[in-house]
Amino acid sequence: MKLALDVMGGDHGPPVLVRGALRARRELERPPELVLYGVPEAIRSVLAAEGEPADRFEIVPTTENITMHEPPAQAVRKKKDTPIVRAMGDVRAGAVAGVVSAGNTGAMVSAAMLYLGRLAGVQRPAIATWFPGRGDGSIVLDVGANADNKPEHLFQFGVMGSLFAEAALQRARPRVGLLNIGEESGKGSELYVRAHALLAEAPVDFIGNVEGRDIFRGKADVIVCDGFTGNVVLKLAESMIGFMVSRFRESVLASLRGKLGALLMRRDLLRMRKDLYYAEHGGAPLLGVKGCVIISHGASNDLAIRNAIRMAARFQELRTIEKTESLLG
Amino acid sequence: MKLALDVMGGDHGPPVLVRGALRARRELERPPELVLYGVPEAIRSVLAAEGEPADRFEIVPTTENITMHEPPAQAVRKKKDTPIVRAMGDVRAGAVAGVVSAGNTGAMVSAAMLYLGRLAGVQRPAIATWFPGRGDGSIVLDVGANADNKPEHLFQFGVMGSLFAEAALQRARPRVGLLNIGEESGKGSELYVRAHALLAEAPVDFIGNVEGRDIFRGKADVIVCDGFTGNVVLKLAESMIGFMVSRFRESVLASLRGKLGALLMRRDLLRMRKDLYYAEHGGAPLLGVKGCVIISHGASNDLAIRNAIRMAARFQELRTIEKTESLLG
Questions:
Q1: Do A264 and B258 touch (CB under 8 A)?
Q2: Do A99 and A293 form a contact (C-beta atoms < 8 A)?
Q3: Interchain proximity B217–A243, CB inside 8 Å
Q4: What global pTM score does this model have?
Q5: Domain of residue A273, CATH code
Q6: ipTM score of the complex?
Q7: Which 3 state secondary structure label does DSSP give A226?
């Protein structure tokens, strides 16, 4: 299996992304064959610095790039020689099986819609991401492919999320919950009341409404919400972990006793950080399009990239796309 | 100033609520005169256990109660002899200046709408709550008085939130942000795009959109959102603090080194907990109704109740209601 990796996206650029590719190659059990999309000189200089041969990976040279703050739909139409657009074209042509990028999320969604299109029965794609929590954590979707959703979209997210959770959490029959402001079925905005009624008839194990407090409690394996709410929730949760860590540093490490205490619990704190750390779970797939599209966090380090590549490989192996089409199409 | 306290609401009932009243009486600088609404025998048995005289507080005896899971609007219409309904009636009649309750939030909102009504210029009331964060934290509203909002409601929340933040955060000109999925003004759902345009013209210091990640970063003093999103965000944030603490316990306190380390940093950890702890800030006011209505968390302890009483007193002193009417009415 061939996989496209955009090495120009993200906050850190080629050095981190090429090192992520090298880690995937070395560390994964069945590493996919990686094709690197980007500026060849930049790629080769990282390879040289890492003591790797210049032809370690197949390279697709590109000359342009979409930055993090460009209006995505426009950028995708204008800038054809970017890693995201070239890679999507190659997924469409069947030259690669999927694409991993830490670049502009909106550009990834726009390019996927334009070049790959939606799966039959899917009106809107959704970004599904892993949240930590009791047990194995949960999959939340949509976390940002959409700004406004309709009840039918949430129904489709429930089905796609359930199929993806089978792959990502390795669960036979994932419990699907609808994010809401109360447990009872009549609760919530009109959108959520109607989505609840649709999900009750969906071919998934729908357990009803779950609340904000249930996200970290492992009550559901899949949590369905509209893209606006999901994006707010994702960014809040990410920053909250950072906020707690910085408060811990300020409060505790300011005193000598605290420093000594932290030294003693260093190993445990590092393990805890690993459990909560998004990078461990790799990227977030864009579900509902005709191809495997994995969106990594802009701040990804090489470990996160390695794991996003592992996620892409697993996504393919478990035939998530084929299963989605057979249920919704 | 006389203040009504519902001693039957909340998860812990009269013992915790009466102890909260006693703490307010002992510990606040200018304690309001408290009137306790509930079953007299239950109140007197707590007073006896605390070694206090049976007539320490004025008591308004009630025979019924609204539980946490009753449909609120219905319960308020049917059960007239409950602390919430009786206290709202007394606020309306001018017998007490405000009411504090840790009971059913929906019932508080319904009873306030029915007995007090909305302030001129306010279409929907909003619950405003304090979030921890860099600096003094921020005020987020609405966190649950509404399931569906219109752009004009968010405009009114911005004005009410700004006036309340002057009182709660003691800031002269609070920075007001609109919770959204991107910083640019065109971002978000239709509701948020339109609310942005209205807030840009509001008589407040509107700083534009803020994202989920900004809530803990102290970017805005007031964060405006619809009641659905706010309620999800509030419950998520509360549970996340609990989740991080329990993960810390599991990871760190499982080892002897970790236990010893925690012992060394005990004082700092307690201080950090205090900084983050909602109870320290007391209850959340229901803004936009004709009276001072403070909603406490169902899980409130006596400290939280004491602080909710302090919040009610401050709310009155700062004439938040009169200021709101002069700006919106």
A1: yes
A2: yes
A3: yes
A4: 0.91
A5: 3.40.718.10
A6: 0.89
A7: coil
